[in-house]
């Protein structure tokens, strides 16, 4: 079309074409490739249906017919296009030539938002399941000098780093061309890509608080919660006799980092043995993969606690659930105590089928499955 008719710039026709473009933009924003049709009614095109003059209605309808002849629009049912009053047939209009319609109203292709472009890149390049892609799609990374396609492709390397004793910013620097802060506040993205509950990389080194027993240590007990750790080092019951008690603040799943000097800082309690001999024995044990000392874990009786137990066994193969603590918790749970996952904001915890610890697998997991409730460790002072 070399010369555009004046009616194409009229307010009435412009309202119709802008409505059609709105629907195109809405479909594009939703990620729908389906061409949207619009039913012509008094609500969608009031300029036609509220006109008091039949001649004006027929004139506006003729403009629609003309745009169909140009190949811009399509009208259904077909009979409507052949009638002078086809607008009375409850017609539906579909855009056929989108660029032409957009040009007519001065609205070129909609610019997609950063979030939309990120989700498209994730869908195209992330090597993951549909659910993982959906989760990662909520964490837009928009880098000025890199395309989102490039960024997503780098995320595919995360599993290669999962078992290495790295801090979060070290991981970021290795993935994103030396930039160390890209993953700050994006731990949930990392966890989603790796398919784990929590990001395994700490923001800073794990701070390991250690109580060494007087008279020498015979075993090591990792305690999940700080309050229970404080109760334990003050206990006079004797149940913790000859146990090195450990609370690891910042530990989130990769037990290998607990045994690596670069990613753990050890602090000793003044309530315990501060002799250099005891410290050397403990640090030598911690830094090796030997099994010369028995090692136990005691935490919440919930799926997260079982998952920590399983994760720690990857680096402490001899590690077991600490029975003196868990026996009481299991018995209490089976007697009807405990809280629902929803009551303690734990509804997102996924069940664990096995930990590799025979006691936990035979006694604790069945109790959790049977009752569907959890118990916090802090309830049980020993």
Describe this structure in words.
This protein has 382 residues and is an alpha/beta fold. It has helices spanning 11-29, 46-49, 54-69, 78-81, 98-105, 114-125, 130-136, 148-155, 158-161, 168-175, 187-194, 226-234, 276-287, 303-312, 323-334, 358-371; strands spanning 37-39, 73-76, 92-95, 206-211, 219-223, 243-249, 264-268, 295-298, 320-321. Helices cover 41% and strands 10% of the residues. It has a six-stranded mixed sheet with strand order 7-4-6-5-8-9. β8 (295-298), α14 (303-312) and β9 form a beta-alpha-beta unit. The N and C termini lie far apart (88 Å). The model has no long low-confidence stretch (mean pLDDT 88).
Key features of this structure:
382 residues, alpha/beta, 6-stranded mixed sheet, 3-stranded antiparallel sheet, elongated
Q: What would the principal axes of the Cα set say about the shape?
A: elongated
| Rounded average pLDDT | 88
Q: Which strands sit side by side, in order, in the main sheet?
A: 7-4-6-5-8-9
The biggest sheet, with number of strands, parallel, antiparallel or mixed sense and barrel status, is: 6 strands, mixed
Number of helices, counting only DSSP H or I runs of 4 residues or more: 16
Structure, briefly:
The chain is of the alpha/beta class and 382 residues long. The protein has three domains: 100 residues, no CATH class; 81 residues, no CATH class; 170 residues, no CATH class. The chain has 16 helices and nine strands.
Give the topology, please:
Layout: H1 11-29, E1 37-39, H2 46-49, H3 54-69, E2 73-76, H4 78-81, E3 92-95, H5 98-105, H6 114-125, H7 130-136, H8 148-155, H9 158-161, H10 168-175, H11 187-194, E4 206-211, E5 219-223, H12 226-234, E6 243-249, E7 264-268, H13 276-287, E8 295-298, H14 303-312, E9 320-321, H15 323-334, H16 358-371
Parallel strand pairs: 4-7, 5-6, 5-8, 8-9
Antiparallel strand pairs: 1-3, 2-3, 4-6
Helix pairs in contact: 1-5, 6-8, 7-11, 15-16
């Amino acid at each position: 079309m070399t010369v555009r008719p004046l009616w194409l710039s009229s307010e009435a026709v412009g309202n119709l074409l802008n409505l059609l473009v709105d629907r195109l933009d809405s479909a594009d924003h939703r990620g729908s490739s389906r061409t949207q049709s619009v039913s012509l009614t008094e609500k969608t095109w009031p300029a036609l249906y509220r006109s008091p003059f039949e001649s004006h209605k027929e004139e506006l309808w003729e403009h629609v017919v003309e745009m169909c002849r140009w190949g811009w629009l399509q009208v259904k049912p077909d009979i409507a296009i052949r009638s002078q009053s086809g607008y009375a047939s409850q017609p539906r209009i579909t855009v056929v030539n989108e660029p032409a319609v957009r040009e007519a109203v001065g609205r070129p292709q909609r610019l997609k938002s950063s979030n939309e472009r990120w989700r498209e890149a994730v869908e195209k390049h992330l090597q993951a399941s549909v659910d993982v892609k959906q989760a990662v799609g909520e964490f837009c990374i928009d880098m000025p000098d890199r395309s989102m396609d490039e960024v997503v492709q780098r995320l595919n390397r995360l599993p290669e780093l999962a078992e290495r004793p790295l801090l979060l910013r070290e991981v970021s620097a290795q993935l994103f061309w030396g930039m160390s802060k890209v993953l700050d506040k994006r731990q949930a993205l990392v966890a989603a890509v790796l398919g784990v509950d929590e990001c395994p990389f700490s923001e800073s080194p794990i701070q390991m608080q250690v109580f060494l027993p007087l008279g020498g240590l015979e075993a090591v007990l990792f305690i999940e919660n700080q309050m229970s750790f404080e109760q334990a080092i003050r206990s006079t019951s004797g149940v913790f006799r000859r146990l090195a008690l450990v609370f690891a603040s910042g530990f989130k799943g990769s037990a290998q980092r607990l045994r690596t000097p670069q990613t753990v800082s050890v602090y000793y309690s003044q309530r315990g043995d501060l002799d250099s001999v005891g410290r050397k024995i403990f640090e030598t044990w911690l830094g090796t993969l030997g099994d010369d000392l028995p090692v136990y874990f005691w935490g919440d009786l919930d799926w997260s606690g079982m998952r920590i137990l399983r994760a720690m066994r990857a680096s402490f193969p001899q590690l077991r659930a600490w029975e003196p603590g868990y026996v009481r918790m299991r018995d209490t749970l089976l007697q009807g105590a405990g809280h629902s996952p929803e009551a303690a904001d734990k509804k997102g915890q996924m069940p664990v089928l096995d930990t590799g610890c025979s006691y936990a697998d035979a006694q604790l997991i069945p109790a959790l499955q049977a009752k569907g409730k959890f118990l916090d460790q802090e309830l049980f002072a020993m």
